[in-house]
Amino acid sequence: MDLLERLNLDMKTAMKNRDKDRLSVIRMVKSSLQNEQIKLGRDLAESESLAVLSREVKQRKESLHEFQQANREDLVKKQEAELSVLNEYMPAQLSDDELEAIVKETIAQTNATSKADMGKVMGAIMPKVKGKADGALVNRLVIKHLTNESNQ
After folding, report:
1. Cα distance between residue 80 and residue 87, in whole Å
2. Superfamily for domain range 3-87
3. Domain 96-151 maps to which CATH number in 3.30.1330.60, 3.40.50.2000, 1.10.10.410, 3.40.50.720?
4. Which of 50, 61, 81, 127 has the least CB density, counted as fewest CB within 10 Å?
């Protein structure tokens, strides 16, 4: 079952259960997916749907951070609730150990030796971990490993 079908089923369930908050999030995601379909003029591939979903999660995380800094607990709780619903549709996240292994393997494959090779490494890693790991975390790990290797 693709993401849009799953969202439709969950939307019906949320309507039956009168779960307004969940329904609102599902409708926002469906709207984003449909806007992307219109923009591309075709049905979305699974990877494109995942990219849209990842973008929604990233927006919520950024908003959550801003609201926390502004001490807006009411808005923080709303963003956390939305993130919780969105995370149900995301693929399982890679563990730190798995991500670390992928980073090391990709650095070895690309023969990267310094921070100057960052773009090459990130370009090779991101398709492997798309939707399964936070890009900022991947970036930090790559920097850590590239600076460790250049110091050795």
Report:
1. 10
2. Uncharacterised protein YqeY/AIM41, N-terminal domain (1.10.1510.10)
3. 1.10.10.410
4. 127
User: What secondary structure does DSSP assign to the chain, as a single string?
Assistant: --HHHHHHHHHHHHHHTT-HHHHHHHHHHHHHHHHHHHHHTSPPPHHHHHHHHHHHHHHHHHHHHHHHHTT-HHHHHHHHHHHHHHHTTSPPPPPHHHHHHHHHHHHHHHT--SGGGHHHHHHHHHHHHTTTS-HHHHHHHHHHHHHHHHH-
Q: Which of 44, 45, 27 is nearest to 36 (CA)?
A: 44
> Has this prediction a pTM greater than 0.85?
no
Q: What is the pLDDT of residues 25-41, one digit of tens each?
A: 999 999 999 999 899 89
